[in-house]
Design a protein that fits this description.
Layout: E1 3-12, E2 15-21, E3 35-39, H1 46-62, H2 64-69, H3 76-79, E4 88-95, E5 103-111, E6 117-126, E7 137-143, E8 146-150, E9 157-158, H4 168-179, E10 187-191, H5 199-203, H6 210-220, E11 223-225, H7 229-232, H8 251-261, H9 263-276, E12 280-287, E13 293-299, E14 306-307, H10 313-326, E15 333-337, H11 345-360, E16 367-372, H12 375-378, E17 386-391, E18 397-401, H13 406-413, H14 418-423
Helix pairs in contact: 8-9, 9-10, 10-11
The structure holds adenosine-5'-triphosphate and magnesium ion.
């Protein structure tokens, strides 16, 4: 499974310059773990981090202008860090699988002279085959919608240290001299007709750019959960659907899909989930006379089943999360904001362990990213997996990894639970 080793975000709301994990520009950091939890007081920037991932995915799907207006973001002016100069920038460092050479994706987004947001720069690079160290080769460079892309799996151009801006004009001139035309076998000159759309969206649709396609598919596959129990209580028309949608209102349809596609395995999946939800004996589905799909839960205390509409919000939520983790084709990256809301505290450690066990499965598990306020959830985690967000005196967010504090790691080694340490103020700034 593809994994994000790190992300650097600049000028995105309170995140003026924040790095989580290892990125190309900060190689000394350790990569993100399969499971990452972000904790911190109110208003420090946890939701902003969650939304930074959502924003990037929205940019890819619908272009930057729509992304700024989507999900109540309120346009460029509101999203750009207040009082900070320069464009909004992201750097994503990722690997297609455990053995792949890491790829760095960089994007800068700014306003044009009329105030409309556009993609100022985009770049993808990867280290040479067989090299563990050394300067990576750029294989996509776009400045102001114009640039060069290198075809295939291995080609690229080394851009020397200190050379921040790729000199496209001189590059093309050299090519012209060398080959008598503007294009070569391995490169292609690109001119986008819409600077509000990402180059990786357009070029990633082409077969002869496999690395760009893989990266595009990776971001397209991200799943950010906006689950609401009310949505899950709606009565969808029966009809199998492969994946749970972000609000969870197709819960029954996903159950129906799994029932049809994985007939043998499915009953044991539901049975397994039932054992993890307190008070539930059995989960099954039935169709109403008018063709709607009903999810049935057998409560330990009652003979007759309850339907999803009568179930408690927390039960439905746990069911939805566990079902998400049982998806035979899970998303590569799964983000959940405050999964604890509405859940009984003793269930949280179980949920954290489920998320983590899923994430640790490097072959078929999603990388998991959660924000949380709940020490019980954090109790199940290791200091390397937990990031503390704080607001600095400058008003911007700062992050630190719990494992960077030797006192904290020492106490966890001695058997103290991490959430308990957080509760006792060992994790926040002292
Ligand atoms: N454009 C901006 N520039 C700088 N700071 C901003 C900008 N927009 C919002 N903020 C600040 O970002 C902060 C972080 O908000 P966020 O919603 O991410 O906090 P949170 O950690 O999720 O809090 P909670 O635990 O209450 O959900 C807010 O306090 C707000 O003042
Ligand atoms: Mg929040």
């Amino acid at each position: 499974m593809a994994r994000i080793e790190g992300i650097r975000i600049k000028n995105f709301r309170a995140l003026r310059d924040v790095t989580l994990g290892k990125v190309w520009s900060q190689q000394e950091f350790r990569p993100l773990t399969p499971m990452t939890a972000v904790i911190g007081k109110n208003g420090v920037g946890k939701s902003t981090l969650f939304d930074a991932f959502g924003f990037l995915a929205d940019c890819l799907r619908s272009g930057v202008e729509e992304a700024f207006d989507a999900r109540g973001r309120g346009g460029f002016e509101h999203v750009k860090s207040k009082g900070s100069a320069g464009p909004i920038e992201f750097e994503v460092y990722y690997k297609e699988d455990g053995n792949a050479r890491p790829i760095t994706y960089e994007i800068s987004i700014d306003q044009d002279s009329s105030g409309r947001p556009y993609v100022q720069k985009e770049r993808l690079r990867q280290r040479r085959k067989g090299q563990k160290h050394g300067w990576p080769l750029s294989f996509l460079i776009l400045n102001e919608g114009t640039g060069v892309v290198w075809r295939g799996e291995t080609e690229g151009q080394q851009i020397d240290e200190g050379q921040t801006q790729f000199d496209l004009v001189s590059y093309l001139d050299k090519r012209k001299l060398a080959e008598g035309n503007e294009e070569s076998r391995e490169t292609e000159v690109v001119e986008l007709d819409d600077k509000r759309k990402l180059g990786i969206a357009t070029l990633g649709a082409l077969k002869h750019h496999p690395r760009i396609s893989a990266f595009r598919r990776f971001i397209e596959g991200w799943y950010l959960s906006y689950f609401t129990p009310d949505a899950a209580k709606s009565l969808p028309l029966a009809g199998p659907q492969r994946h749970l949608n972000i609000h969870g209102d197709n819960l029954g349809n996903v159950v129906q899909f799994m029932e049809r596609e994985y007939a043998g395995k499915f009953k044991s999946i539901l049975d397994r989930i039932a054992t993890k939800i307190p008070g539930i004996r059995k989960i099954s589905t039935t169709k109403s006379d008018d063709g709607r799909l009903l999810l049935r839960f057998n409560d330990k205390g009652f003979q007759d089943p309850f339907y999803a509409q009568q179930m408690s919000d927390g039960t439905l939520k746990v069911f939805a999360y566990l079902l998400l983790l049982e998806d035979p084709e899970p998303p590569p990256f799964l983000c959940v904001e405050e999964p604890e809301n509405g859940l009984y505290h003793k269930l949280l450690e179980t949920l954290a362990r489920e998320f983590r066990a899923h994430a640790m499965n490097s072959r078929s598990g999603s990388q998991v990213f959660v924000t949380t306020h709940q020490p019980y959830f954090v109790d199940a985690l290791d200091p390397e997996e937990v990031w503390v967000v704080e607001k600095g005196s400058d008003g911007y967010s700062h992050v630190k990894r719990a494992s960077d504090d030797p006192i904290v790691t020492g106490m966890v080694k001695e058997g103290l639970p991490l959430g308990g340490l957080w509760y006792s103020d060992y994790l926040d700034a002292r």
